[in-house]
Amino acid sequence: MRIITHAIERLIPARTPAFVSVAVSETVPGTRGIRGSWTGTPADVAERVYTALYGRPTTATAPEASPLEQAHQAKRNRDLAGEVGALMSAGTALESAPWYPVRPGDLVHVHYEAAGQTPAFGETYLIGPEDGGLMSMRLLAHTLPDEESAAGGMIGCFAVEAADDPIYELWVEAGPHRLTIVRDGRPVHTGRG
Q1: Measured on CA atoms in the order 161, 144, 154, 92, is the torsion positive or negative?
Q2: Cβ neighbours for 106, distance < 8 A, ≥ 6 positions apart
Q3: What value does the mean pLDDT of the chain take?
Q4: Do the beta carbons of residue 52 and residue 44 sit within 8 Å?
């Protein structure tokens, strides 16, 4: 958004950014005046443009929510369409990713932020082949120093023995923003849906 803001500010030579405002008005031919108008700052315009192109920007202070967290929030707000929409859009985002579906040999790393007494840590899973065209997702490693007391036995909770889409549950529950997927030694997904 900073790039958009600066581009708008630079439209005026010798400007003082703190005093720049943007006025948008509608004048209908054949009328004597302005029918509608809007006034704001370049940052306001930048946020509106960014939101129209990419969706509402996340703030640096609030961590991004997983699709499941978004669905729970919508449920708390009694927003059935929002609840279903959060889960459906997560599935659509996963299935439309250029690297999807995962393949045997892919590494899937999930990062967990610190919460309460549990420090930040990560888990790495390996996608493997199973009978009948299914795939597994086995825990390969984790970075939690004291797994018994800190995570309450949650280490490896996303491991899957045989599924047609072993990453789906992790994608929806942890969220795509917490995942890194590596294929053939190269990252193919680095944290966004």
Answers
A1: negative
A2: 126, 127, 181, 182, 183
A3: 82
A4: no
